[in-house]
Automatic annotation (TrEMBL):
Signal peptide: none
Pfam families, A to Z: PadR
Identification of the protein by name: PadR family transcriptional regulator
Taxon lineage: Bacteria, Bacillati, Bacillota, Bacilli, Lactobacillales
Transcription regulator PadR N-terminal domain segment(s): 19-89
Amino acid sequence: MNINDWKSQVKRGTLELCILSLLSKRDYYGYELIEVLSSWDMIATNENTMYPLLRRLTKEGYLEGYWQENNDLPRRKYYRITDSGVQYLIEMTVLWKTLTKAVSDIQDHKEEL
C-alpha cells in the first residue's frame, strides 16, 4: 500500500461525516458540496463519489432531497439532513472524537523503560 491508497481509505471513511456535518448547518445541492469540500485537499471529492453517496444517505433515511427552481438556471436538487441523520451524525462525531484522541494518545505514547 502506498500513501495515496491510505489517503483514499481515510477519505472514504470520513467523507460521510463531513457531508452530514455540512448539511447539519444548511441545505446544499450536490455540486455545491463538492465545491465546499474542495477547500480541503484531504477530503475533496468528485461527482462520481458524491452523487452515489448522497443517494445512499437518502435511501438510508439520513437525508432527504427536494428540487428548487433557480430563476433562469436549471433547477437543482438540494439535500437536507433528517432527524435520523442528525442522530447518526451525533453518534459518528462521538466515535470520531474517540478515534482521533486514541490515535493522538498512541502517537504521543512513550514507553517507560
